[in-house]
Design a protein that fits this description.
single chain; alpha/beta; 7-stranded parallel sheet; 4-stranded mixed sheet; 11 strands; binds NADPH dihydro-nicotinamide-adenine-dinucleotide phosphate; binds magnesium ion; magnesium
């Protein structure tokens, strides 16, 4: 059997761990090239040993001596820093899993695209900040982008190679998060612990807060616009609290195809790992009789303004989506550090977007400069709060 080689950027995170869980069950099929993490040295070192990785990269340079100690006596090559992340992403591999959280994953994702390989993309913030540039690079380098985000993976499966001309609309489903039925007054007092308790999914902290504000769906709306360019007016969002239907495609003849599955990220990850075939997973089977009913409701953009902010940002285009993403990253971090209230997250993003817009970026360096400036401005606004 021919082995395929794989690198995982963000190996210690929620998506990274789910990916490695599937690889662990199919050890003979995969050879691990590079694994990366930001600061969790012990977890990275233990994964690098277990999977016999060629290379382990820690992006926080201060942690290099710890990584060296943790991997002493092994054959694993080690490196640190932002440039080493890009080198790891550029190292030849049949598949690169882009699972770093935030805009920090943008340059490494671009490096993976430039090697013209297959990328399983979880890092939605990269597409939000630099969608046009990344998608042009995918085309120029003959890379293959497989969406790992459950909704986009569902859409990818439902599109099944059909041209966008056949599509009448694409609907992203949203769980509505832990605060779906909360009043504005309750939302104002929502705590970090409450926001971190997602009803259906077990994920990293940043995306869990994004799900609570519904910014996650806003980011996914922008992500869908780049992955499936059917026109913004054909993209919809619907709240579906059971998270069973992961998204749907409506065709011009009136047929709607949906993908259903358990709320387990190993399902969409497996669909990327095995694409264009299928593989076994240990995930629970969908028991619709036990679930009983599937419900749907319109999103409420008064209590959850984040989806509106994201739609306006992608309609405005240029630098706006990168600013939206950067301000949101700063705001979520501040909320997680108990510095701002839950409802101030969207307010901070709105304020960042109301400042004068820089010219539209045309290169990755320009996007990264916009991201840095927007973070600085958002931090300044926070200082004044
Ligand atoms: P986690 O926070 O669980 O993991 C993030 C990973 O990125 C970790 O390996 C972390 O390293 C690394 N990392 C964090 N900051 C940096 C940085 N500045 N530079 C380099 N590496 C960094 O996140 P998730 O796995 O939940 O999410 C990853 C991406 O996938 C996000 O973009 C998210 O939106 C997307 N996604 C996640 C889903 C999920 O179910 N979790 C579902 C759909 C999409 P360390 O451990 O050392 O901090
Ligand atoms: Mg999703």
């Amino acid at each position: 059997m021919t082995q395929r080689s794989i690198s995982i950027l963000g190996a210690t995170g929620s998506i990274g761990s789910s990916t490695l869980d599937l690889i662990r069950r199919n050890r003979d099929k995969w050879r691990v090239v590079a694994l990366t993490a930001h600061s969790r040295v012990d977890e990275l070192a233990s994964l690098a040993r277990e999977f016999d990785a060629e290379l382990a990269v820690i992006s926080d340079e201060k942690r290099l001596p710890d990584l060296r100690d943790a991997l002493s006596g092994s054959n694993v090559e080690i490196a640190c820093g932002a440039a080493a992340l890009c080198d790891a992403a550029a190292r030849p591999a049949d598949m690169v899993v882009a699972a770093i959280v935030g805009c920090a994953g943008l340059a490494p994702t671009m490096a993976a695209i430039e090697q013209g390989t297959t990328i399983a993309l979880a890092n939605k913030e990269a597409l939000v900040s630099a969608g046009d540039i990344l998608m042009s690079s995918v085309a120029e380098n003959g890379a293959t982008l497989l969406p790992t985000d459950s909704e986009h993976n569902a859409i990818f499966q439902c599109l099944a190679g059909n041209s966008s001309r056949e599509v009448r609309s694409i609907t992203l489903t949203a769980s509505g998060g832990p605060f779906r039925s909360w009043s504005s007054e309750q939302l104002n007092a929502a705590t970090r612990e409450q926001a971190l308790k997602h009803p259906n999914w077990d994920m990293g902290a940043k995306i869990t807060v994004d799900s609570a504000t519904m910014m996650n769906k806003g980011l996914e709306f922008i992500e869908a616009h780049h992955l499936f360019p059917v026109g913004l007016d054909r993209l919809r969002i619907i709240v579906h609290p059971q998270s069973v239907v992961h998204s749907m495609v409506e065709y011009r003849d009136g047929s709607t195809l949906a993908q259903l599955g358990p709320s387990d990220m190993r399902v969409p990850i497996a669909s990327c790992l095995a694409w264009p075939q299928r593989m076994d997973t240990p995930c629970d089977r969908l028991d619709l009789a036990q679930i009983g009913s599937l419900t749907f409701e319109a999103p409420d953009e008064v209590r959850f303004p984040a989806t509106r902010l994201a739609r306006e940002a992608v309609e405005a285009g240029g630098a706006a989506p990168a600013i939206l993403n950067a301000a949101n990253e700063v705001a979520v971090e501040a909320f997680l550090a108990d510095r701002i209230r839950f409802t101030e997250i969207a307010a901070l993003v709105a304020q960042a977007l109301s400042a004068a817009m820089p010219p539209p970026p045309t290169t990755l360096a320009e996007v990264l400069a916009i991201d840095r400036d927007a973070r600085r401005r958002a931090s300044d606004i926070l200082e004044r709060v």
